[in-house]
Design goal:
Length: 497
């Protein structure tokens, strides 16, 4: 739209182009100078300074949403005469743009998109988070099929009718995007009719939409499967109660999974285990912190890599042995949540089986040397206790990142790969996976600069393979130490020798 006059600068953001303007704010395309990346900056209009509190309340609501599909909030600044926040510039184009360009999607791709939208909406529901209306402008799709969503969180509690409202709206809005000449079109149009409430006794839920889309995705990916329902069968199902539909969907998915297992070719044997890199010693001294100041730190050693699946499996074996003497809580952190009864990560059985077989998990190749994921803070702290170590503070982690002159912005993010694999995601001191791979738990709570008056929260630091645009400077704050995701792991700090 309009270039920024004389390239204005807000904090460390150089404004490039005015993209949109509303009665409340202006949205700029900008460059974050310290890391040379393009971001979006929303600036509160000077003539709406009386709305600052409401503006910041919405920013805090967005910052509290932690989901790999939802755009990230980087920073918020509120000073006299200045109020803005920076957030992620999502890749790809919106579904609204595709509709305007008359560029429909194949049913399989559309099922995948709607499944991802459902997963993000389930997160909003779990948080009880109010959101702005969900529409096609909030859904981004890139050339590789990656789906990302605009952060729609707003201040306030989620009203009971919010999900039903968004489901009905998308049930109408997505219809023009169906490529009607491709297999599966009728099935997608049927799901959209259910979303609009047609022929159902009760409103359909985001969880049910996710399951239906998963089923369609599997069916269209395997056109030879005898389990693919006919058009007539799919239409007749819509007249049944929603609960029966969900049961039937589960049965079909299970049958597909069994068939896939039976037809799967034998796995290749896992390659010989490689030697993991040794811990890196960081000398005592004064180091920059993530918040732009300097802090003097004593010497320490830090793991060169995130803890691996194989290493974590050894820990669980020790706990199983201790459990025979009712000592399975030997390494539990102080004040561990009472409901926390096990240190087994989420979906551990499936993840560990895939790693042992050198197979795939969540469409990712995985071995015993891949970083462990699905761990919460309590799991990470317990493992550290077993190793006579601890989790790093964010200051120690950042000092290790910059040790020996590494510039964080120069480290290219890497995927979730075995820590023994060749990767460009390493520092001058030999630390692996700081800019990509998985985000990592740290040992102490800290203040979020986006909410300087808020509570001190637990910090996840480093890039994530599930969050495009994240890197070695990325941080998340959470008040929930029981949080676990498929992109969260950890590394250890030891006393200096």
């Amino acid at each position: 739209m309009n270039s920024a006059p004389e390239e204005r600068q807000l904090g460390e953001y150089r404004l490039k182009e005015l993209l949109a303007e509303s009665a409340l704010s202006k949205t700029w395309l900008a460059e974050q100078i310290s890391v040379s990346r393009r971001v979006l900056v929303d600036e509160l209009r000077h003539d709406r300074a009386d709305q600052k509190d409401a503006f910041l309340a919405d920013v805090r609501a967005m910052a509290a949403v932690d989901h790999p599909l939802v755009s990230s909030i980087y920073e918020a600044v509120s000073e006299p005469g200045l109020c803005f926040y920076a957030h992620e510039l999502l890749p790809g184009t919106t579904l609204a743009a595709r509709e305007s360009a008359h560029a429909p999607l194949g049913p399989a791709r559309l099922a995948h998109v709607l499944r991802r939208v459902s997963e993000a909406q389930l997160q909003y529901e779990a948080l009880g988070q109010a959101t702005a209306p969900m529409g096609l402008r909030a859904i981004y799709l890139d050339d590789h099929g990656v789906v990302r969503l605009k952060n729609l969180a707003i201040a306030g509690h989620r009203p009971p009718e919010q999900s039903e409202r968004d489901i009905v709206h998308l049930g109408n809005a997505l219809v023009p995007l169906v490529a009607t000449d491709q297999p599966g079109a009728t099935r997608m149009l049927t799901v959209f009719s259910w979303m609009r409430g047609e022929a159902l006794d009760a409103p359909i839920t985001w969880g049910q939409i996710r399951d239906f889309c998963m089923q369609i995705d599997h069916q269209l990916a395997d056109p030879l499967s005898s389990l693919t329902p006919t058009q007539a069968a799919f239409h007749s199902r819509k007249k049944q109660p929603v609960a029966l539909i969900a049961i039937a969907t589960t049965a079909v998915l299970f049958a597909i999974a069994v068939l896939a297992i039976q037809m799967r070719p034998p796995r290749k044997p896992a390659p010989p285990r490689a030697v993991l890199p040794v811990a890196v010693t960081v000398a005592a001294g004064k180091y920059p912190t993530p918040d732009g100041i300097e802090e003097t730190l004593p010497a320490f050693r830090i793991s060169a890599n995130e803890v691996t699946i194989g290493q974590y499996a050894e820990f669980l074996q020790i706990l199983d042995t201790l459990a025979k003497d009712n000592r399975q809580h030997t390494f539990d952190p102080a004040n561990q949540a009472p409901e926390k009864s096990s240190h087994e990560p989420e979906n551990w059985a499936a993840l560990f089986a895939a790693a042992k077989a050198n197979a795939t998990w969540l469409d990712q190749s995985v071995t015993l040397d891949s970083p462990v994921i699905g761990v919460d803070w309590w799991d990470a702290a317990a493992y550290a206790e077993w190793k006579k170590a601890r989790l790093p503070t964010q200051e120690e982690w950042f000092a290790a990142l910059t040790y020996k002159g590494t510039k964080p912005a120069t480290i290219p993010p890497g995927p979730w790969v075995p820590v023994t694999a060749l990767s460009s995601d390493h520092t001058a001191a030999g630390l692996i996976g700081m800019a990509g791979s998985v985000s990592e738990w740290t040992g102490k709570p800290a203040t979020n600069p986006a909410n300087p008056l808020g509570d001190r929260l637990w910090v996840l630091i480093g890039g994530s393979y599930l969050k495009p645009g994240s890197n070695a400077l990325s941080r998340e704050w959470t008040g929930n130490r029981s949080l676990h995701r498929a992109d969260i792991g950890f590394r250890l700090v030891f006393e200096a020798e």
